[in-house]
Amino acid sequence: MTLPARRIAARAEAQRLLAHFAAQGAEEVEARVLQPAEELLDLYGEDIRARAFVTQDPLRGEVMLRPDFTVPVVRMHMEAGRDPARYAYAGEVFRRQEAEDESRPSEYLQAGFELFGGRDPAEADAEVFATLASAIPDLHLRAAMGDIGLILAAVDGLSTTAPRKAALRRHVWRPRRFRALLDRYAGRTPLPEGRAALLAAADPFADAGPEIGVRTRGEIEARLGQLRDEALAPPLPAGEVTLIDALLSLAAPLPEALDTLRGLEQDAPGLGPALYRLERRVEALERRGVAVAEVAFEGSFGRTTLEYYDGFVFGLFAAARPDLPPVATGGRYDALTRVLGRGRVVPAVGGVIRPELVVQLRGAA
To answer: Which residues form the Class II Histidinyl-tRNA synthetase (HisRS)-like catalytic core domain (predicted)?
Structure first.
């Protein structure tokens, strides 16, 4: 059966991108299509099931069609123990879609560039962005950036309990859940009725019925204690909530966003280290010839992607086609190396381009 012309063109584009990344010193690597599901579920929780194809292998147990390349490439790198290193790859990834169409297929190509190690994270961030942008300059894409590190720093600076901070950090990548928790902790919304009734009960186990499941009674009692402590904790200060709202709603050209963030830092000194990293990144981008005044900074950018990005995040979009997903995306994921490196951390940043979208946009030009 003959492949469609666009599919042939997309594969050729993937190979061209690989050559472009290789010219930047990247080593080409491959990753198995079937990845161990347990590892991905441990990393992202059961939410990943709604976005990935999971099946059962008689020898390897539960496996998943790779939802992306980053996790297997990080695992490979951490096992090899090589620093610094640059890698490139190209191949299919698989994601469930609520409604599949030409721009959002359940199977599509990715071509990627990953950079591990190095002495200067700001320079590495700028290199990855510039490498991807320079691979497709003819498309004249709109660039947007964010920084998950700023959001995490704002959460860490809240005047509240450690469990509340941990819950907010865990849900940074789930905006609706994050907002619901923030509003509850701020006293803007009451406890859910069911939880309020449970905590008010003199004996929560009185009408609970038989004990089933894997949790012991002691574990359940400990969790109830945590919920009581949370309900008794004082509400978040209004000024701190306002600061997080301002950070998440920030949308401006990168230089203007820096000025706004410097203003926010006056009331939130904990933002200082993350803001300093952002300033150094902007300087590194300028040294590489990136017109930073044309780059949009969005405070919430990157919060609906897979949850390994913990710092710099970016995307390249077709401004004339807002219906399309980003043509390229990427970011920093140092925390992921700690998980897969069993405690050893390596600075890591990378990004991917979707060859089918590149071909589609060139065909429309």
So the answer is: 3-174, 236-353
Measuring CA to CA, how many Å separate 40 from each of 156, 253, 310?
A: 26, 35, 17
- CA distances for 164 relative to 108, 158, 194, 197, 233, angstroms: 39, 9, 19, 21, 9
For residue range 297-315, list pLDDT tens digits in order: 999 998 876 567 889 999 9
* Number of other residues whose CB lies within 10 A of the CB of residue 132: 27
Give the tokens for residue 25: 């010193």
Tens of pLDDT, residues 37-93: 777 766 666 566 667 788 777 777 788 888 888 888 988 898 887 778 999 999 998
| Identity of the amino acid at 47 | D
What are the boundaries of each domain within the chain? 188-234
CB atoms within 10 A of CB 238: 11
Residues 160, 236: Cα–Cα separation, whole Å: 6
Cα–Cα distance measured from residue 8 to residue 202, given in angstroms and rounded to the nearest whole number? 68
Distance CA 129, CA 114 (A): 11
The whole model's pTM is what? 0.87
